[in-house]
Each structure stands twice: as C-alpha cells, then as structure tokens.
Design brief:
162 residues, 1 helix, single chain, eight-stranded antiparallel beta barrel, mainly beta, 14% helix
Length: 162
C-alpha cells in the first residue's frame, strides 16, 4: 500500500512539472543597442594590475526599451587584457511588459583598443518583468573615455515564466 502511494505521488509530481514547463512562454529573440556612459569612482593598483570601480548610466533600445544604472569593476591586467563585471539595474519595457530587473553582465577585451565581448543574464525582476528570464551576449567598441557615451550591441533569448 505504501509503495502504491509513493508511485502515485511520483506520477503526480512528474505530471505537475510537465504542466508547468508547458505553460512557460516560448523564448523570443532579444536584440538591440545598449548605450552607456562610464564614470570612474575609484582606482587601485596591485603589482601591474589596475582595478577600477565604475558607475554607468545606460539607455537601451530594441527588445529592451529603458534606462539603467550599474556599479561595475574593470580590471586592466598585466598582460594588457581588460575584464569587466557588474550588476545592471534596469527600468523599462521588454516585449510590452514594464517593470525593473537586475542583470549580471561580464565581459573582456584583449587590450585597451579592441572591442568588448561578454555575456548577460537576467537575475530577477519586478512588476511585469517579475517572471522574465533570459541570457545572451553583448559586444562592441564601448566608450573611448570616461564620461563619453559608448555603444554596445546585445542579443540573446528571453521568455516569461508562468
């Protein structure tokens, strides 16, 4: 009898998981332009590595239509390569739904003159974006100097969870 209840419970859980998966919205392509302006808040040096604490303002167009701010870290490595990571705080619309979201972004470039390449992942959201999930890539020249506007292009997939 105990075995029958355990089997029945397993079947119910499995069917519930299938129903939830079936209700998730299909992924859609996300693409557009992310313009940003960087400000250096602090600089530290350790050996031949330089560490920059940055603040950025952003304007998004395309699938993401809105504005953002972010606190980031840039490392200029001894080799001349650059790396970057930050949490983006975004406010705006995505596929007709509005709200806020947090996104993790990371990237790199082989030297100070090359284009940036990186990845983005949506961490969480509020209001109409509370169930938005997605990830993708970004690339572009970025800003030439602090305080100037730079261009980054993004693409990936997004979908709304049930």
């Amino acid at each position: 009898m105990k075995k029958m209840w355990l089997t029945l419970l397993t079947v119910v859980v499995a069917l519930s998981a299938l129903l939830i998966s079936a209700q998730a919205g299909p992924p859609t392509t996300a693409e557009g332009l992310w313009r940003y302006q960087t400000f250096i808040e602090d600089t530290k040096t350790a050996g031949c590595n330089t560490f920059l604490d940055t603040f950025e303002n952003g304007i998004w167009s395309g699938t993401f239509e809105g504005t953002s701010t972010e606190d980031g870290k840039v490392v200029i490595h001894c080799s001349g390569a650059w790396s970057f990571n930050a949490i983006v705080s975004y406010t705006g619309e995505v596929n007709g739904q509005s709200g806020t979201l947090k996104m993790s972004v990371e990237g790199s470039r082989p030297d100070g003159l090359s284009d940036w390449h990186g990845r983005w992942v949506i961490l969480n959201g509020t209001e109409g974006l509370a169930t938005l999930r997605g990830q993708g890539t970004w690339w572009g020249p970025g800003a030439a100097n602090p305080g100037e506007w730079g261009n980054i292009y993004y693409e990936g997939n997004v979908h709304f969870e049930p």
